[in-house]
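Supplementary Text 2. Reproducibility record for the structural model of the 161-residue chain.

All settings were left at their defaults, and a single model was retained for analysis rather than an ensemble. We include the record here because the model underlies the residue-level annotations in Supplementary Table 4.
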Amino acid sequence: MSMEQIIATVRSFEGALVVVPEPGGDFPELAWGDAFFYYAPDGRMPANVQPYGTIITKNHPDDAASDLDPPGRWRVNVNAGRRALSELAAGEPGGAGGRPGPAAADEVVPHPVYGALGWISVVNPGARTQDTVVRLLRAAHDAARARAERRHATGRAQEDG
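Retained model, structure tokens:
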């Protein structure tokens, strides 16, 4: 599954906003070429809300364990939640019978930095993981929509009170 296919899939979700920073825009150079997935039915990037998924195309200063700098390597990250993470990525990294390390391609692993917060990562999703990645992105999108609806309802209740 290519980055473009994942981006097209997420764009098909109702209310999805995909932000792909490009050179010369308002985003820092480090973000250029990456993609950020939000629930934003108004088409505007939400303030004070983290994306529910990302595609990262290069190593970051605090995140190089996936070895994304070689050509053709990239990683999709999804806020899957701690429960899904424990079901998908059990075992110790790199150990005998354990899960693969963070640089393994086409494997669901805890995010090398945000895994403890329920984020999963897949370097270069392929036949083994593409259906799981799409399913997790859909679930993360639905969870982001539910959070937005709760915030909106709470805001209305405070205005009415």
